[in-house]
Write a structure and sequence with these properties.
Rossmann fold; ProC C-terminal domain-like fold; 58% helix; 12% strand; elongated
């Protein structure tokens, strides 16, 4: 995800000399150096010494150590901290960075790797309007952004767009398997399912038409689509999706408690 954000920033016009990155693994730094002409560092304090924005693209398990390593620079530079670590709360970060730290929590998703991600953002009360705009512009380099009004809403963002790509992958897997059961070879079923997913998403995004209306336009009375949709409804597809997303949101809240 860090590489995707760096790539997006460079493509959107951010000067390479304004970006620094740190990683404890030399191999990771070497790969990054080969793809992006930015400054790379072996330790966090060196990377953030002059930073006004710091992106914490680290695993939740190492967030405590990482925040401790940048706390002095955050205070000295009045830097904005953007965290993309799932389950690490504002309070836990502020306890290490200081009560005055300006923090934005971000929940991106994996399509950011292609520049078409979706990120939910929440800012604490220390974040200025200018810092808020800066955080938004950074994350818009890899997709769209949506601000939420409470930190708890990030659990819903996690359940919807954070985990969402896996739901669509699963549904396409099921369509491919069903196509094979109906007699198609797997390559053909895979190509058709993936292109159908892409085309459907583009139709939804590029037309200012309600999803239910788009569905109705595909569903001829008495036809094949109507029969399939009726079966989905009888089998409880909507409730199944609701149950799954509730489970994801619950797990996101549990992770936050586990991380302290």
């Amino acid at each position: 995800m860090a590489s995707s954000i760096i790539g997006g920033l460079l493509e959107s016009g951010h000067p390479a000399q304004s970006i620094s990155a740190a990683d404890p693994f030399p191999a990771s730094l070497e790969r990054l150096r080969e793809t992006a002409p930015i400054r790379v560092c072996a330790d966090n304090p060196s990377a953030v010494a002059d930073a006004d924005v710091i992106i914490m693209a680290v695993k939740p398990q190492v967030m405590a150590e990482a925040t401790d390593s940048i706390a002095a620079a955050v205070k000295a530079n009045a830097a904005l901290v953007i965290s993309i670590a799932a389950g690490v709360t504002m309070d836990s970060m502020a306890a290490r960075l200081g009560a005055a730290a300006a923090i934005v929590r971000c929940m991106p998703n994996t399509p950011a790797l292609l520049g078409c991600g979706a990120s939910g953002l929440f800012a604490n009360s220390k974040v200025s309007a200018q810092q808020r705009e800066h955080a938004q512009s950074i994350m818009e380099a890899v997709g769209i952004t949506c601000w939420v009004n409470s930190e708890q809403e990030l659990d819903a963002i996690t359940a919807l767009s954070g985990s969402g790509p896996a739901y669509f992958f699963l549904f396409m897997e099921a369509m491919i398997d069903a196509g094979c059961q109906l007699g198609l070879d797997r390559d053909t079923a895979t190509t058709l399912a993936m292109q159908t997913g892409l085309g459907s998403a583009r139709m939804a995004l590029e037309n200012n038409i309600d999803l239910a209306e788009l569905r109705r336009r595909v569903t001829s009375p008495g036809g094949t689509t109507e029969r399939a949709v009726e079966q989905f409804e009888r089998d409880g597809l909507r409730q199944l999706v609701n149950n799954a997303m509730e489970a994801a949101a619950k797990r996101a809240a549990e992770m936050a408690r586990e991380m302290g």
